[in-house]
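Write out structure tokens for MFS general substrate transporter.
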Amino acid sequence: MTLNEKDGANVAKSLRSEGSLSAEPSETEVRRVLRKMDTRILPLVSLLYLLSFLDRANIGNARVAGMATDAHLDGLKYNVIAAVFFIPYALAEVPSNIALKLMRPSRWIPAIMVAWGVVMTLMSLCNTYHELIVARVFLGLAEAGLFPGVTFYLSLWYRRKDVASRIAIFFSAATVAGAFGGLLAFGIEKMEGIGGLHGWQWIFCLEGIVTVLVATASFFFMHDYPETATFLTESERVTVVDMLKRDTLGQATHFDMKFVWQALTDYKTYVQIGIYIGLLIPVYAIALFTPTIVNELGFGAAEAQLLTVPPFVAGCIATIAVGFWSDRLNLRGPFIIGGSFVSLVGYIVLYTQDKPGPAYIGAILAAVGVYPTIAVDLAWAGSAAGGDVRKGVVIAMVIGIGNLGGICSSFIYLHPPRFFVGHGTIMGWLSLSILLTIFTMWDYNRLNKKREEYCKQNGVDESNMAEFADMGSESPLFRFTL
């Protein structure tokens, strides 16, 4: 740790140990510091997630590029290969976020990235169904910590009302990966036969090598926490730490197993999981099967790779725009309901139309609607949990259990060319997310009113926050975002 990092850590320790807060910084100062943090944090984590999503979803491009034929993936074999990724991916997310809290993010996140980059590179040597299954299992295990880890990481740098737009920028890398993956696959396919590898194997090889190189560089460029960030001046570190303390009401930042149990036993965690799983199943279905769906609309393999780009580009733009509006209005639920409805309309179009033109418009609507909801929902889930450890566990549970939905996504697109079962299943999940979001908004509003009345009757205000530091989101001072 450098001298500046030690100074920052001492400042943070002093601020966190005191019951009082310093004078609130001006909005101009806050915006200036936020912009500085954005330029140093968001580009790197967005690049990491772009590579993560590219490496997990390129199986869909590889299938169209000839993997199904060369590896003899008849019947449900491709679906099994797509699905096995999600089992270790889901199970490892909570332990990974606990490890991130116990270790330095700048060591944990690059380390797991090197691991999955090596797996992805070696996946290029797989020629059979069983070899591909083994590779996907290890890929899921290695990738598990990145998405929940970075989501948790961002929540330690930004206030609850600022984090949705940042998660949106970070998550938009997934839509860029979807678009870029099609273009990249289109070009890499032409390496067929070089080095004795098929074109689809080169997709795995080259993308894996890039991941390892970026992971190695990120060891040197990733910062851990605001209080130790060397790119911030001492006064800026004080501003950020104080700002976060105001936002979290001085809630606990240290590790204790009771905070893990608080997350595990809170019914609101499981409602958020229900919302997220209903949104994530369509997202994974889009990533895994858009090349196949477009191909089945009557376009050739090369055209299908290129035509997967517009839905993802539109989804990227919508994700960033919705994230910023969600933060500006400090609202989450209405944006989830609105996005889910747009995606629902897209799937209704896909379900009812058999002409390529209208059906392709349906695919674009499906992506534009559902992609923005992921960032907003994760910001919502994280903001509903008080305290660092509880927040990290809740985020990991929502993402981890929600990712089991990827197994569902892998087995619902079985009957081309219309895919009635797949489209119908996703319409059901989107409807569930809408209903659970409506319930959550009502429940959070009810709890907020109850706590406001309690504080009014008992004279509780911010001067009492040290008394409730370990209560997390059960603190009478805690308010839920709607």
